Amino acid sequence: MSYPFQESLSNIEKRLEELTHAVTKKQERIFDKVIIDNDEFQKLFKISPGTAANWREKGLIAYSQINNKIVYKIEDINKMLDDNYRPFKK
Questions:
Q1: Residue 31: which pLDDT band, with cuts at 50, 70 and 90?
Q2: pLDDT tens digits, 53-78
Q3: Gyration radius of the chain's alpha carbons
Q4: Lowest mean pLDDT among 17-21, 26-30, 39-43
Q5: Which InterPro entries does the record associate with it (predicted)?
Q6: Which residues contact 65 (CB under 8 A, 6 or more apart)?
Q7: Any long-range contacts for 28-32 (C-beta under 8 Å, 24+ apart)?
Q8: Spatial separation of the C-alpha atoms in residues 14 and 63, rounded to whole Å
Q9: Which residue of 3, 9, 28, 48 is 20 to 30 Å from 75, comparing CA positions?
Q10: 83 and 58 in contact (C-beta within 8 Å)?
């Protein structure tokens, strides 16, 4: 005898596992890299080109520019996040 609720719950659990796997794989692709370009940086932080330029000008993020191509080291992105980390206050 089949229980519709159990089947539905099993389907939800299976889909959740698939989504978790997909998100983990996407995160690994970004953070396995040593460098990312400016477009990837903007997508990662959901910021405009002007905001990225502003962060560079203010010295918030280290970067390299080769000809007209701007790239960031993942370690510099992590440093920026650590330097600007504000823990919750109790």
A1: low
A2: 999 999 999 999 999 999 999 999 99
A3: 20
A4: 26-30
A5: DNA-bd_dom_put_sf
A6: 71
A7: 30/74, 31/74
A8: 41
A9: 48
A10: no
